[in-house]
TrEMBL record:
<keyword id="KW-0963">Cytoplasm</keyword>
<keyword id="KW-0418">Kinase</keyword>
<feature type="binding site">
    <location>
        <position position="167"/>
    </location>
    <ligand>
        <name>AMP</name>
    </ligand>
</feature>
<keyword id="KW-0547">Nucleotide-binding</keyword>
<keyword id="KW-0545">Nucleotide biosynthesis</keyword>
<protein>
    <recommendedName>
        <fullName>Adenylate kinase</fullName>
        <ecNumber>2.7.4.3</ecNumber>
    </recommendedName>
</protein>
<dbReference type="GO" id="GO:0005524">
    <property type="term" value="F:ATP binding"/>
</dbReference>
<dbReference type="Pfam" id="PF00406">
    <property type="entry name" value="ADK"/>
</dbReference>
<feature type="binding site">
    <location>
        <position position="54"/>
    </location>
    <ligand>
        <name>AMP</name>
    </ligand>
</feature>
<dbReference type="InterPro" id="IPR027417">
    <property type="entry name" value="P-loop_NTPase"/>
</dbReference>
<dbReference type="InterPro" id="IPR033690">
    <property type="entry name" value="Adenylat_kinase_CS"/>
</dbReference>
<comment type="pathway">
    <text>Purine metabolism; AMP biosynthesis via salvage pathway; AMP from ADP: step 1/1.</text>
</comment>
<comment type="similarity">
    <text>Belongs to the adenylate kinase family.</text>
</comment>
<feature type="binding site">
    <location>
        <position position="150"/>
    </location>
    <ligand>
        <name>ATP</name>
    </ligand>
</feature>
<dbReference type="InterPro" id="IPR000850">
    <property type="entry name" value="Adenylat/UMP-CMP_kin"/>
</dbReference>
<feature type="binding site">
    <location>
        <position position="156"/>
    </location>
    <ligand>
        <name>AMP</name>
    </ligand>
</feature>
<feature type="binding site">
    <location>
        <begin position="33"/>
        <end position="38"/>
    </location>
    <ligand>
        <name>ATP</name>
    </ligand>
</feature>
Length: 213
């Protein structure tokens, strides 16, 4: 295996070692089993920016007893999906915090066309633009095998082959319009998520280097 050449700072990525690198604002998408969470954590370290997942945002609001957290908990307790508007507000509040001034990596948001528009509005209000949208891709059979193996290790009986396939179908249906929209804006970077973790990170960084210019 070749030695990784992954840049360790935003300066290296942008090729400006003697000046401050631009702020980096990214979104990462990918189906279950593609290694999105792992790559999000690695990219956050590469760019020196926080990785922000919707799950973390929800947990922080619920633990903090915020009004939005209470709303989310009420819906969840009834077995209902949290409305987009509640999620949008949580993301807006999170992106207003000081640590995102150097950039951010959003993981799990946006998930649908409404949330794409909502994120556009949030960023417009902040005077910001997205730099890139990463989509991790993977062969469906590879994903099914990965998730099934993980379910077996973790003892997750609810992860049946049928349930896994259904979740992948839902992802494909919901995400295709999003990736198409971002591709039209020349923001989309599609990367094969199969391979050694470091190799996948290198692919992402190389794709972003071209995208960010």
């Amino acid at each position: 295996m070749t030695e990784s050449t992954t840049p360790t700072t935003r300066r290296e990525l942008h090729g400006t070692p003697n000046s401050e690198a631009r702020v980096t604002r990214l979104v990462i998408m990918g189906p279950q089993g593609a290694g999105k969470g792992t790559q999000a954590a690695r990219l956050a370290e590469v760019f020196g920016i926080p990785a922000i997942s919707t799950g973390d945002i929800f947990r922080a609001n619920i633990k903090g007893g915020t009004e939005l957290g209470r709303l989310a908990q009420e819906y969840s307790a009834k077995g209902e999906l949290v409305p987009d508007e509640v999620t949008d507000s949580m993301v807006r509040d999170r992106l207003a915090e000081d640590d995102v001034r150097t950039g951010f990596l959003l993981d799990g948001y946006p998930r649908n066309a409404h949330q794409v528009e909502a994120l556009d509005g949030i960023l417009t209000d902040l005077g910001w633009d997205l730099d890139g949208v990463i989509e991790l891709t993977a062969d469906r059979d590879e994903l099914l095998g990965r998730i099934a193996k993980r379910a077996e290790i973790e003892g997750r009986e609810d992860d049946t082959p049928e349930a896994i396939a259904r979740r992948l179908d839902i992802y494909d249906a919901e995400t295709a319009p999003l990736t198409a929209a971002y591709a039209e804006r020349n923001l989309l970077v599609q990367v094969d998520g199969i391979g050694e973790i470091t190799e996948v990170t290198d692919r992402i960084v190389a794709g972003l280097a071209q995208q960010l210019g």
